[in-house]
Protein 1
Amino acid sequence: MIANRSAPGATVIPVLGYADVAHASDWLCEAFGFTERLRIADHRAQLVFGDGAVIVTELGEHSGPSTVQVRVESADAHHERAAAAGARILNPPTDYPYGERQYSAEDLGGHRWTFSESIADVDPESWGAVMGERLTS
């Protein structure tokens, strides 16, 4: 798996929805000791804790309050496996400008999953994110 500055290094990344991303990010950092890695406008933030990560996003970005994001070696191969096993594919594998190839699926319980393959090392500031160390300066 290649490293991508636009994606957290963790393998499994919960995606949690909140009404106010900035407030939630600040609170999670203060209350639980996370560090904000980067913020994407006012709708998304990546927080890290040790070698783990969580993505904070607006509630409206998906139908439920949370999803799970998993980093994989090959989004295409993983997609084929999931589809063959009967997963409901919500979005096919797609390349994104932040250096990830992702697809989304729903499991038999209705839980949503995004599987993400790093395909390039992209400077997060090139697509509009603000790096954590610059948030306080």
Protein 2
Amino acid sequence: MIFRQLFDPETCTYTYLLADTKTGDAVLIDPVAEQVERDLRLLEELNLNLVYCLDTHVHADHVTGAGMLREKTGCRTAVNATAGVACADQGVVHGDRIHFGDQRIEVRETPGHTAGCLTFIVRDGDRILAFTGDALFIRGCGRTDFQQGDSHALYQSVHTQIFSLPDEAIIYPGHDYKGHHFTTVAEEKAHNPRLKTTISEDQFVSIMANLNLGQPKKLHLAVPANLGCGLTSEGEQNQERDIPEVSPIEASDLSVWRVIDVREPHEWVGELGCIDIAERIPQASVASAATHWDRTDPLLLVCRSGRRSRNVAATLIDMGFSNVSNLTGGMIAWNATHANPE
């Protein structure tokens, strides 16, 4: 198997190129938008055919290059099916296998840093390679204080899905900030200051609760862009498309629409609540569900602020739906308009 570890110095992100030596079929794990030309050049030099771009999670510190690479190579993109990335070609879940040539990647769900984190396991002869994204770093781990992070979940993910691998398994993380390239399961069990086997779950939760980290610099850019496969230009185009907007005032009588709330399940019970009559279908599942709908139904798409729902509206229009509208400002504007006075 051909293997390359690539590095983006601005975000300290590792991208991994894997390829089957027999067929030339290749996979990129966690590509970075600013490094797309580098990756394309390497694929051409090695005479490889990119068949998949995989993201370990919806990144908050950089924009994925998956969408751009799909446009340029025709590869498929894949991310956790629960991550809310409607534009991904394939939503994967725990236990799935991704094939490239005679090689395969095992998908393990390792939530905690985000609710949708994945670890990819590859067996190359006698070697076991684990691409852990931000679930496990070299002597560290990803933070758990945003994007539905959960310290309890991360502790369990690492111990049950990564530390359950043989001690000699090689761990390739999503980032490194101290000049390291890889580690092993045995090393992290013995030396990881947050997750070594002598640290209890309660101790780990306490460690994570007291990190007091600032927000990633690209958080507000990266997360929305990555929910759109990294195609920020596509998102801007959707803003310019002729997608009807309905204000919360105009939507006072909801009986004329089939209301679809495309947020994630935790958001429906969160502080913004949910419109009572709304059908609750996460963004990543709408396209599949819509294959069974009447394409003349009047649809009103809803999300938190109106961005995700607008992107989903564009997808439905591309599928042939003729009467699709977006709720301007999403649930934030809805609540501001319709909240009961105290």
Protein 3
Amino acid sequence: MQMDRRKAMSAAAAMAAVSMIPGEAAAAGKLDLTSPAGRLRAYMLLRGGLDEQLVVSWMSARYYGVVEDAMTPMFNVRSVVFSRYRKVLAGPYAGGYEAVNGEVAWFFDPETNRALDTWRNPWTGRDVKVEGSGFAPSKLYFAPDLSMHLAHEMPGLEMAHDVLPFEIRGQDVYLTERSRTAMHIPGAARPYRYSESNTYRTTLAALSAPGARHVPCDVSFANVCSWRPWLGMGDHPGHMMATGMGRQNATLASVPPEWREAAAQRRPELLSKPGALLDDLWNKR
């Protein structure tokens, strides 16, 4: 009975925080999912942070090749994103956040959990050299309206980014972020497309915690993309898709062990000095 009372009081406090007057809630650092300032604060708590500390996030997923209505298992991917955030004080994105992030990912054999160097393509019957995934450190901005903007435009790139409304289910809070891109490459018959959806899950209590600067949360991940160029698929019909899960605002110790093993062999500095990946770009003002 005591535990039930404690849960009821906790739930009441959390709901009271949600129901505060929007302007007052954002100013007081309370949970507010209705005003632009409150949504920005909650979004940054989930995606990154309200301070400049290093943020570690990881994803574990399985890739499939999709040709007509057949879905063929391909390989696994393990990804870690390192990022840092800071408030923007001036310029077109004033009031929002600047982010510097970089991703390091490898593809893995689903049976051995070892990082792949080559892979037998079942559609062509050829062995192909596996290239790494992820992206080099880059800078982007999140405006107060949650729109995302690249610091430098990339010729040929089309991008759409959406942050859907927060959803509350009992004591759980869900937020879905989706991105759709198309890269037009000179000489290519079709653009390379990559689209993904990430749903963050946390609790009202975590988002309402006094003084919170980061909120760890579980992530559900799905993507659809064109064949990777290194697969050598040419004009073969179809595309790739992946489903998986991960952790935002995680610890390096929680990263999948196969990724840490691959990093120790291929890029050990990521384990000893993970923040160094971002230093050059982060320190440029």
Protein 4
Amino acid sequence: MRFPSGSSARVMGRALAACLALAVVTAAAAKAPGPPPVPAPDWPSGCEPDRMREDLAGADSADVSRACGNLRLPWAYRGPLGRGTALHFYGRREADPAWVARVASMLLDSAGVDTIYRAPGAEVSCEHTKPAPVYLVRFRHAGRTTNVLVRFDLGAALVFASNEPLGLLRLGARADSLWAMLAEPLFDDPQLRQPPPHATDSLFDRAHALGDTVIADVPPHQLARATHMPDYPEEAQRRGIEGTVFVLTRVGVDGAVHDAVVHAGPVLLQDVALETVWNMRFSPAKSHGTKVEVWTMVPVTYHAH
């Protein structure tokens, strides 16, 4: 079986016009025994140009920040136990409407939208003495927030809304202009007073937002029940909400959960599902007898009483 691993390398998936869709192998059910769980919903394409254009072109306000932390799947919520593996931003500044219109127009002036999964995952230090050329612009339109994670190291902008990936824009020659534009609201950022960094475009040739593709002949298996099972949310019980939350889970060579994000499932059950998965232990996946770190889909099912 092919699994996405936890480090960066080549893209996996299938072509969808100009976009790629991520294929993830589904693991055993989180709760057993019982009937087989329903299959996970299709993974989003990560390429939604119409939605992207609607949100950016109609934006009426925005703020700008430095960004750091986990740049893998930055649109995904990891729950309270996953704060250490989340995307962080700081030094936020509001932008004026004219700036918002200029930047949105420049971003949309692109030959095409690629799938967001083309971008390599990365960890960026949040130490202010070691800033990376990564910024977050949050556009607001019609009560929605559309995030643009600008990675000058890649020469690309990753666009996502909440848990929904919308696409990747190559900046090309526009990177210098965007660098200068960011310096307007972030006027006290010393890095933006320097020349923009040179983008390493070759990273796209071996990149995937989740990581390397590895061949695992032995998938990860849950060893036992989670060490902590949170209470069924009172509001979910009161409203009779039940179902399966699918959690994309990174299992390390030590069998511990190193990252967990919700793929799909009832909103009121997502926090408890994440808490459950973060407390799970697995036997690690193996490739030709060697333990490997992989991502796998873990379904957690809840029944209202």
